[in-house]
Structures are given as structure tokens and as C-alpha cells.
Amino acid sequence: MKQIIALILILLSFGCQGQTFKKALKFATFYTAFSGGNSLSDSEVFSLNNGLQTDITKTPFDYSFTAGIRKIARFGYENRANVFYDGTEKSYGDAATIGKVKGFEFLFEGDYRRQQGVNYLDQDYFLRYVSNNWIAKVEFLQDGFADVRYFEGSQRLRVNLGGKLSLNVGAVQRVSEPYGYDPLNEWLLNNDQLHYTFLAIQEGYEVNVNTGEFFSPSGDVVATSSEVWEEVIIPEVLSDYVNRKRSELPDQWNHSLVIGFDFYHYTDDFWMHSWGNVMPVHLDSQSEYAYQRFVNDDQWIDYSGGLIFGRRFSRSFGVFLEGKYNKYWDRVWHDFSVGINYVIL
User: What would the mean pLDDT of 95-112 be, rounded to a whole number?
Assistant: First the structure.
């Protein structure tokens, strides 16, 4: 964490060098918003325990609370859809290495939401400074729905080629989860079966062998049969245990070479914005739970990229394609949209 804070402070000093803090915040927008709506409709659940039983499953309403501050210049293909920022604005262009303008840009946004009865926390914080010959950026991203969470900082030299295309090369620092650690190994028996009941008892669960009841650490009855215990409760116990044990290990730092490009072309009828980053060389941290130990290889290839394309063939007809793709360590996450527009005159 100290290293992350140091990187952020260094980048802040770059962004504010030669200008006041007030100037750095000029044209930035602070916003908060709360939104909500219906979730899944109520549904009937039937069971045959002690005769026919009917129950109603209710899902609480969806909601989200968003707060943030942003200073990011819009690209030519981006329009301000709403009068006010409400936190629902999503732009693929925010993930590009280089922004629309030179200088200091930033985004700090947190979004806490409940979706179909499940709570998620989304966070995206980044600071970026773009000059003619160099780029510096730090970012922390957490996508609760996709279960993605990472920190990344990079410092790169930049070469402009013709005004639309630029190449960059430099160093990137990333933080990953520990790899190669399986907390359940110590609970394996000689026949490779898992001693899950003994593990659950250590975690605070209790078993009454006389009544066949199973109790949670808080004393509530969670199962009245071994079938429910093994098929419903034990999977939850194992998941909670593995997540807790892995969270006790320190995060792993990755230092890598990064090579990238950015291309931007825009006219009223045709635009293309693309970027890509490849990380082919990585320093060995010598950590027991580093990704190198997990894959039994000192080197691997991670990459990320995005593409935004639009074409108007006439006043009425146009097509678009937008998307981004990331492959870091053994995780892949991506999203895209593609479609056509036809205006009936």
C-alpha cells in the first residue's frame, strides 16, 4: 500500500507541476446519484417436506449509489447524453492509454449497488498525465460483478507518428492476488478425500449426532439431514474458508515491460479509436506465491486493448462497434456492443 500511495503522489506532482491545484481541478465535475428500480418478481417455491409446502421467494429492489469526480476530455465521437452526471455514464474511451488532450486528467468513482439481491462494489480511480514524449498513469479498478480487482501503474516513453498513431514503451507495475496456494490441501486425507466436516467444526459449526441437526457458528439450525449438509452448507463453508485463508496472504507485485500503441481518427462520418498493450517480459519477484511459480514459467504474455468504430453511410444509416478486452494472469474480462442505427425520415 505504501508503494501505491507513493506512485500516486509522484503522478500528482507531475500533474500539478507548474500549475496550481485549482488549475488542475478546472473543468472537473463532482457528482453523486442514487437510483433504484424493481428487481426480479416474486416467485413461488414448492416443497414436499411434511406435505405440500408453498413459500414465496422475494428479491429486494435494485439500487445503486454513485459518487465521483472526473476530469476527462470527451473524444469527438462521445456526446454528453444527460444534462447532469448520474454515474451511469460509461465510455470505452476511458480505458485508452492516451486521452483526448495533453496534460492532467483523472477519475475517482465508487459505485455501491444491489442487483438481484446481491451487493456489489465497483470502483475506478485513475490519474493520467500525457505529454508529447511521455505518459504516466496509475489506476485502481474493482468490478464487483465480474469479480475483477487490480492496481496498475505505468511510466512510458511516447513516439508520435503522423499525429494519429503513437507508440509507447516503458515499465508497468501491477498488484495481483497470490497464486498457487490451496488452503484445502491440509485437510486432505490419505485417500485424497476432503475431511470437510472436521474443517466445518473448526470453523465453528456443530453437529448433533443424536438428532441429526447441524448448527452454524451463531447457533442457528442450518441443516436437518446429511444431504442438505453436504450439498448446501459444506460448499458455503469451503468457499468462505478458502477466501479467508487466501486473503491472509499479501498481494503480489508484478514488474513488467509494456509495449503499446494508440490510434485516433475522427470525422463526422467515420471514426476509429483503438489502443493496445502487451506485457511480454516480467521480473521474477522470487515470491512463493508469485504468478511465475503458479505457471512454472518465468515469462508469459498479458495484454489489453480496445476498439471504437463508427461509420455513417448516410444521414439515415450508420453502424458502430465498441469493445475492450483484458487478459491479466489467468483472468479474462471483456465487454462489447455492436449494432446499427437507421433514422426513418
Answer: 89
